[in-house]
Amino acid sequence: MQSKKVKLSEALKQFQSNVETDVLAALKLFEQQGDISILPTVFEKLRSCELGIEKAILGFLSDIQKIEAKAVFIQFLSEEKEQALRQKVLTTLWNSKLTYDEHLPFFVMLASTGDFMQALECLTIIENMQGPFAEHELLESQLLLKEYVEESMNEDEQKRQIMSEIAWFIKEQNEGIDADLLLDDE
Q1: 92 and which of 31, 50, 62, 131 could share a cystine (Cβ 3.0–4.6 Å)?
Q2: Entry pTM
Q3: pLDDT tens digits for 107-117?
């Protein structure tokens, strides 16, 4: 067991390098170890790395299949202030093999508070959700959309269209809940 910790520690040191081959080797070790505790370090590396390293990291994040990793992704997305970094991580989620159905309201909230590109990434994640969704998740999502509509008079038209598509998706998930109140008939 000690050797696993030593390997992980060595991989973390190697990961800090700016040499692409070192980072790729470290990512391979991370994958073998399957330890999600390294995810915050991986997210942090995305702040300032070259394009080749960034692509490798995003690929690594997309390939994670451990269900426990979902909580780490959600925590990162809820705490991260930098839109560009949040957007990169969102891209890995819709490319991921993990499903985020139980976080529907969270992604609706992210879409409504972010810029157009973040809303687009969230729409893609939401459209990949399978359902069925709990009624409280649909209701919470509808409330978030209603708040968005009430406060979005000055939003750009592209983002309003994305939010409208999210509202339609949610309406389709539960015809029994009156989602018509959320949609603008522009």
Answers
A1: 62
A2: 0.85
A3: 999 999 999 99
